[in-house]
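hey m, so remember when u said the tokens were messed up on ur end? i reran from scratch. heres the input so u can diff it against urs
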Amino acid sequence: MAAVDTTAVDPAPPRLMRFLSAIERTGNRLPHPFWLFWILFAITAVASWAMAAGGLGVADPATGKRVAVQTVLSVEGSREFLSMIEENFVTFGPLGTVTIVMLGVAVAERAGFFETLARKSLARVPAGYVVLAVALAGALSKFLSDSAYIILIPLGAIAFQTVGRSPVLGMIVAFVSINAAGDANPLIAPGDAAFAAMATEAAQTVSPDTVVRATDNMYFTTVSAVVLAFVITFVVERVLARREHTLMPDDPDVLTDGARPAPGPREIRALKLTGWAALAYWALIALATLPRHSPLRAADGAVIESPLFDNIAIFLALFFLVIGVVYGRLTRAIASNHDVPAFMADGLRSIAPLLVIFFAVSQFVALFKWTNIGTYVAVRGADAIREMGAPTLILFAALIAAVACMNLLITSGQALWALVAPVLVPMLMLLHINPATTMALYRIADSCTNSITPMSTTFMLTVGFIQTRKKNAGIGTLVSCTLPVALAMLVAWTVLFFAWWLLGIPLGPGAPVR
């Protein structure tokens, strides 16, 4: 199969190509992410001072108590925030997840497991289908939580490299697919239970007997996963493929390596035996969760909201450690026990630049939350939607647009839902709209814009991954590639929901759309 021509240049790029190139150039002129987040930190500090001086605040929808914007530019404020700096970094969620999962992933990756798996599974797949394959893999990644980015982005690079296409484009496809999978997926994950619990609490302010279940969007999210995978494939092949020559890695030998033949007999045998080891691992986990009082279950016996799912990063790290050691021993990539910690250390070295960025990101995120600016913006935005009084479908479109814009600033799906659900769910219930419908609308708005905002930690994580293959790539490179995909997903997903609403198809078991 022919590789992508890295020297090809479109002599007369259309307006869209020129627009995306302009976005890339502009974005890449931004400061290094480390400095960018310190600049945002300073802007937030000044904004908090101005808003606090103006006495701005809102009523917390959950408690009814007034939440005022507070400033760090005061003696007491600065003293309190200084005492939080170390904790902000150490307790920063992605830091622990990335570090722990990478310990296991590094062993599997450096033992050659991921590369062999990609070559085996894609040995006979035409290059035209690799985008759909990676998109579908991302659509099924929800149970991995944030670990999906650590695992699937490098795997997407290998998949594209295997068929002679840009590994950078493979990373981008994996990234947007995982973001879509965050809210469009046939699987039920801990996040669904959290969404449902918050929706139930909000709904019971209007109707005390209302219960929202984690499965209430299952039908809609299952269909959405497939639809979005095809949307991603269409946009990548019709738009981004025309810019693929600009996404080639710095090392041209990478594409030559990617065109190597399928794995040999030893690797195939090792892959099969490793597959059995993987099944045995998860079978043991499943057996360990069967007893009613298993330590992997919650105190009330729940499985979804339990130590198993709350600490999934640990179990994933152990999983990849097991398959890495088994595969490495069988292929002799791991010659002794000393190789395992060496692989782990090498893996951590590869993410050291990301950990430096995380320090700046963690302080900005903590300040934004501590000042209550996030709460103020979310509540004011929700109030504006409530006051519109527009027809139902127009209201839905405005709600999706407003929440998508809020998501550019507050990129944590559960955090933003916790802020807006106490207003949106009761408000729409008074308009005879099922809470499950409100939750589905939120899912649409929540996923797509994560792919285009540098405020998202996973966005910056992806920039870091891309720079391992293409050093001069930056924020603008990723935004210029994800913007057309994100907009297409947002439009297509909204149209799908409108059709679902008009046809009156249930969103999930026992969850009517209206």
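this time it looks ok to me. The CA atoms of residues 378 and 420 lie 6 Å apart. if urs says something different then somethings off w ur setup not the seq
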